[in-house]
Design goal:
alpha/beta, binds adenosine monophosphate, 3 domains, globular, seven-stranded mixed beta sheet, Luciferase, domain 3
Length: 537
């Protein structure tokens, strides 16, 4: 017997309608290329969203067509998020930090028809335009007086594009499984793969990630998404905020700029923010150096890569801010797990708490998780068994966009995250490595992440990457590429000695190579492929 409840589709349009009706006067504040502090309300935003929808409809786009963005976090990008998806097109957010060959690949693979870009990326498009046959127009996210010139492109000004169009729009009745947005994972191997989100997955993820045991976002929060809107929908915050009625503060391209972030936090009363570890390190260093406090800021989510305990504790002790670790992937929309303290651990010692805080947290409802060994046998959550993390759920990808072989979804219905993890008996997950980064020495596995964490625990090391090098006797042995802190003269022997007593002897790296900087991918992760190539030449 079926239930007798309404079959009401979960669409982004319903999120927009809700925010428009219930929170019309809540503000959206932005830093943009043409305005250091733009502000308006949800009501104003959705009027312009309607104007944009009318302008897009006039282009003759068909349902499901891809419309691309190459843009920072600001109100115009927010308008595109809603207008494109609610009109029934697919909002394809492109990471401007990708190499131009990758941008070329994904625009062509997605067959994007129009591209909305921040002015600073116009030269990137100019360099590629001859190789982008599907693109029919480039719209620049600015006003007439700030328009860049171009001899190669027939640029359209965004403000002119929407001007004169009606502030009313009749949105199509979409089905909840219709595609809403597209983001390519910039994996370190092979071509990028497209993750195609649906309206349903986006709304469910927005609700799930805003819940109390996750981001805990209510209409009391002032949210500053530093995590970029070009990567996994800024961890869904533009939707979560609208369905929670919270004020949004968009930092534009000033994502790692201490003075701008600080004044946004203090002027706008930011309570909650989210970003990758490097953002928090930069902000912390700036606040410490200048002796500035951020009294309204309560919580910051840190994810994308592991965050050192020293930074989590520095945020607590010096800024009175709870830096909370979260984990996820492009394929999981992204939120899969987050650190919150279970009441049963209220009496845990400081030392136990330190161990918990650096883990990747508790799974949230909506992302079912299991660990399996390399033969596929499920492993217990006992804190020591480690294996491949597999997940499934309504906001987990089952296939990649337009690929013959869909290697997102395994035959057993689980998605292999590529992370090697343990779960402790309380349900806290800890990544020990990416499966492709594990080092196998003499038949035993060594976690590259553990070696990196121990290296940066050394007071004179700024960043480290561990990889396995080929070894005649042991198959592989671990080595470290390390960046010294400014002014440090720490030697390889001293760094190697600092591992003594902290891990098993055979796990201690044999070689340390100091470098000025380490290679990173477009999403800020260590690019170990480049380091391996360096070894093989
Ligand atoms: P992406 O799809 O580019 O967002 O990358 C997802 C991968 O980033 C995951 O599979 C993890 O390996 C890594 N990652 C995400 N969050 C964390 C975290 N909190 N700690 C360590 N690694 C993380």
């Amino acid at each position: 017997m079926n239930g007798l409840m309404m079959d009401f589709p979960l669409t982004i349009t319903s999120v927009m309608d809700y925010a428009k009706k219930v929170y019309p006067n809540v503000e959206i504040v932005s830093v943009t290329s043409d305005n250091p502090r733009h502000r308006y309300t949800y009501k104003d935003a959705f009027k312009r969203v309607n104007q944009l929808s009318n302008a897009l409809a006039a282009l003759g786009l068909q349902q499901g067509d891809r419309v691309a963005t190459l843009a920072w976090n600001d109100y115009r990008h927010f308008e595109l998020y809603y207008s494109v998806s609610c009109s029934g097109y697919v909002c394809h957010t492109i990471n401007p930090r990708l190499f131009s060959e990758q941008i070329e690949f994904i625009v062509n693979h997605a067959e994007d028809q129009y591209l909305f870009t921040d002015p600073m990326f116009v030269p990137v498009i100019e360099g590629l335009i001859e190789k982008l046959p599907t693109l029919k127009g480039v719209i620049v996210l600015t006003s007439e007086e700030h328009m860049p010139s171009s001899d190669k492109l027939d640029l359209i000004c965004y403000e002119n594009f929407i001007a004169g169009h009606s502030e009313e729009f009749n949105y199509p009745q979409l089905e909840e499984n219709n595609a809403s947005s597209l983001c390519y994972t910039s994996g370190t191997t092979g071509n990028p793969k497209g993750v195609l989100y649906s309206h349903r997955s986006t709304v469910l993820h927005g609700l799930g990630s805003g819940a109390p045991n996750a981001f805990n976002i209510s209409n009391r929060e002032v949210v500053m998404p530093i995590v970029p809107m070009f990567h996994v929908n800024a961890w869904s915050l533009p939707y979560t905020c609208a369905l929670s009625g919270s004020k949004i503060v968009f930092p534009g391209n000033k994502m790692a700029d201490g003075p701008t972030l600080t004044s946004l936090i203090n002027d706008e009363g930011v309570t909650f923010s989210a970003g990758v570890p490097t953002v928090w390190l930069a902000l912390y260093n700036y606040l410490k150096a200048e002796g500035i406090a951020v009294p309204t800021l309560e919580r910051c989510i840190v994810g994308g890569s592991a965050c050192p305990l020293s930074l989590i504790n520095a945020f607590r002790d010096d800024l009175d801010v709870n830096l909370q670790t979260a984990w996820g992937l492009t394929e999981t929309s992204p939120l899969g797990s987050i650190f919150t303290l279970k009441p049963e651990l209220d009496n845990a010692s400081e030392e136990e708490l330190d161990k918990l805080k650096v883990k990747q947290g508790l799974p949230i409802f909506g992302v079912d998780s299991k660990i399996v060994d390399f033969e596929g046998n499920e492993l217990p959550w006992d804190g020591t068994s480690f294996g491949q993390l597999k997940v499934r759920g309504p906001w987990v990808a089952k296939a990649y966009y337009n690929m013959e072989k869909t290697d997102a979804h395994e035959e057993d219905g689980w998605f292999d995250t590529g992370d090697i993890v343990t779960y402790d008996k309380h349900g806290y997950m800890q990544i020990t490595d990416r499966s492709k980064d594990l080092i196998k020495s003499g038949g035993e596995w060594i976690s590259s992440i553990e070696l990196e964490n121990l290296a940066v625990d050394h007071p004179e090391i700024a960043e480290a990457a561990a990889i396995g090098y080929e070894h005649e006797k042991w198959g592989e042995r671990p080595m470290i590429f390390a960046v010294r802190k400014e002014g440090s003269t720490v030697s390889a022997e001293e760094l190697i000695a600092s591992y003594q007593g902290k891990i098993a002897k055979w796990c201690i790296p044999d070689i340390v190579e100091f470098v000025d900087e380490l290679p990173h991918t477009a999403t800020g992760k260590l690019d170990k492929k480049v380091l391996r190539q360096k070894l093989s030449v």
